[in-house]
Design brief:
The chain is elongated and about 145 Å long. An 8-stranded mixed beta sheet has the order 3-2-4-1-5-6-7-8, sandwiched between helices. Among the domains are: 84-163, SRP54, nucleotide-binding domain (Four Helix Bundle (Hemerythrin (Met), subunit A)), CATH 1.20.120.140; 179-323, P-loop containing nucleotide triphosphate hydrolases (Rossmann fold), CATH 3.40.50.300. 35% of the residues are buried. β6, α13 (339-347) and β7 (351-355) form a beta-alpha-beta unit. The protein has helices spanning 2-28, 43-67, 84-87, 89-99, 110-122, 127-144, 148-163, 190-203, 220-231, 244-258, 274-289, 308-321, 339-347, 368-376, and strands at residues 179-183, 208-212, 234-236, 262-266, 295-303, 325-329, 351-355, 363-365. α4 (89-99) packs antiparallel against α5, α6 (127-144) crosses α7 (148-163) and α10 (244-258) packs parallel to α11 (274-289). By secondary structure, it is an alpha/beta fold.
């Protein structure tokens, strides 16, 4: 009996083992209780996936191709130089109007010379310069026995001869400190001139530091700072009312430390008295001159519309700081363009740059031949 019971127990145990093994195999084969296997995506579901994979692959190819080549930066095409004939309409009108009666007159007489003098004075050449020009033209006309029609070419030649002397390019020496100092009374466009010249220099690949040494005028440094950011130049400034000399010194030190090519110094245009202003400018020049040869230009900015007052300013500033050249602004909006001739004739200072519009590219190098042609065109 015991043996029979033992056999039954063994059979039952064997059956249990078989059943358990079957269930395990069933689970592994995906039978009852197995986790559902993922189903293949339908064609509709597969399309977005394929599209995303293709886009990612294309982006990867683009990135790889970009990294494999040197991408040249876009170069802005230089703006066309404005034609002086188009910009000097008011001066030309005043000049040509007074000369209109000469053509076809025949002989040269006293009235001829009176009309020439009137034309020069209307253009604000000034009496001393006009007298000098007329004397030279009279001598030429006598030698060549010119009639009234021949006088105008002689006058044109005389004006060109008057403007020819003098170096008109802005001085810059590679691998040396270069400082351009700007002087002039308030309101002539000094800060805007500095900004436009800074833009031109940066465009040429030079690094520029702007020195906000006009610490006496409210918001002067903020204005120059705005321009510095706009044109890509560095700015050195001090607190309002600070010593301008310290600003210039710091700017030159900063330029040396940063390896900058050029420092442009904005100065005050008005102090309590003219004497104080000139003494301040002299001091700034002495600070720059501590670095031998660094001061390449002292540029006087003059508003052309002030006419003979501009000549007076030029004389005063030249006596104080030895001006090397003149920047004549707002030449397009005045009939007093003859001030160019007066500055050259009476002071011997070349006009180097002229402003003939509000745009950044309307500040251009002065060309005597183009200027004279524009007067007679």
């Amino acid at each position: 009996m015991d043996s029979e019971l033992l056999v039954v127990v063994l059979i039952l145990a064997f059956a249990v083992v078989l059943i358990a093994g079957g269930l395990l195999l069933s689970r592994r084969a995906g039978g009852v209780g197995a986790a559902p296997s993922p189903t293949a995506p339908s064609p509709t579901e597969r399309a977005p996936i394929a599209e995303a994979e293709a886009e990612a692959e294309a982006q990867l190819e683009t990135i790889t191709a970009t990294e494999a080549q040197v991408v040249e930066p876009a170069v802005e095409a230089p703006a066309a130089r404005p034609r002086l004939r188009d910009r000097l309409g008011k001066t030309r009108a005043a000049f040509a109007g007074a000369l209109g009666g000469l053509s076809g007159r025949g002989k040269v007489d006293a009235e001829t010379w009176e009309e020439l003098e009137e034309a020069l004075i209307l253009a604000d050449v000034g009496v001393p310069t006009a007298t000098r020009i007329l004397e030279d033209v009279k001598a030429r006309a006598a030698r060549e026995k010119a009639d009234a029609d021949g006088v105008l070419p002689l006058l044109k030649a005389e004006l060109l001869d008057l403007l020819t002397p003098g170096e008109r390019s802005l001085t810059f020496t590679t691998d040396e400190p270069n400082v351009w100092m700007f002087v002039g009374v308030n309101g002539v466009g000094k800060t805007t001139t500095i900004a436009k010249l800074a833009r031109q220099q940066v465009t040429e690949g030079r690094t520029v530091v702007l020195a906000a040494a006009d610490t006496f005028r409210a918001a002067a440094a903020e204005q120059l700072g705005h321009w510095a950011e706009a044109v890509g130049a560095d700015l050195v400034r001090g607190q309002e009312g600070a010593d301008p000399g310290s600003v210039v010194f710091d700017a030159m030190s900063a330029a040396t430390g940063r390896g900058a090519d050029l420092v442009l110094v904005d100065t005050a245009g008005r102090l309590h008295t003219k004497v104080n202003l000139m003494e301040e400018l002299k001091k700034l020049r002495r600070i720059v001159d501590r670095t031998p040869g660094a001061l390449k230009e002292v540029l006087l900015v003059v508003d052309a519309s002030t006419g003979q007052n501009g000549l007076t300013q030029a004389r005063q500033f030249t006596e104080a700081v030895e001006v090397t050249g003149v920047v004549l602004t707002k030449l397009d909006g005045t009939a007093k363009g003859g001030i160019v001739l007066a500055i050259q004739a009476e002071l011997g200072i070349p006009v180097k740059v002229i402003g003939v519009g509000e745009g950044a590219d309307d500040l251009v190098a002065f060309d005597p031949a183009e200027f004279v042609d524009a007067l007679f065109a």
